[in-house]
Amino acid sequence: MSVNLQKGQKISLDKEAGGALTRIIMGLGWDAIKSKGLFGFGSKSESVDLDASCVMFDESNKPVDYVWFRQLKSKDGSIVHTGDNRTGAGDGDDEQIEVDLSRVPASVKSLIFTVNSFTGQNFSQVENAYCRILNAANQKEVARYDLSVQGAHTAQIMAKLYRHGGEWKMHAIGENGSGRTFDDLMPQITPHL
């Protein structure tokens, strides 16, 4: 059963998945903005380009690598972005970041996942926006975070995955921000490390 994450909540990924979790997927989904046509007739859709990113940090809280629409794979190959969706069209996840936790280098202490509105719409304007963590082995949802109800901001530091006591844990950060890419959020990310 999936956990509907609340800001600040911490969970054990292994416990929520019902066993050792070695591969996860961070899924991001949303729909294009639908608005009424001229004089209230018909409708049109406005494209929305949300972007999922993952930043890898070492023990000294320094970024060591990034996975985002301009770099779809980490240098060590443990994290892969499946590609940039620029419209929100289609069902299910529009973007995914796959993480093989067993291959993340031991020098990496934490992974921070962010979502940015590259086209600049704020999350209150974007329909059905969510992030979720899936167990890659069986595609079952472990946790979900609803973005559309979050308000008038263009970015969010979604969550941190971190090593603790020999297992991966997750902290739902849910901090709102602004900016078109994860790089704009770096000053806000640092206090969460």
From TrEMBL:
Keyword Acetylation applies: no
Name of the protein in question: Tellurium resistance protein terZ
GO process terms (BP): response to tellurium ion
Source species taxonomy: Bacteria, Pseudomonadati, Pseudomonadota, Betaproteobacteria, Burkholderiales
InterPro entries referenced in this protein's UniProt entry, alphabetically: Stress/Tellurium_Resist (IPR051324), TerD (IPR003325)
Pfam families: TerD
Plastid is among the record's keywords: no
Keyword vocabulary terms for this entry: Tellurium resistance
TerD domain location: 1-177
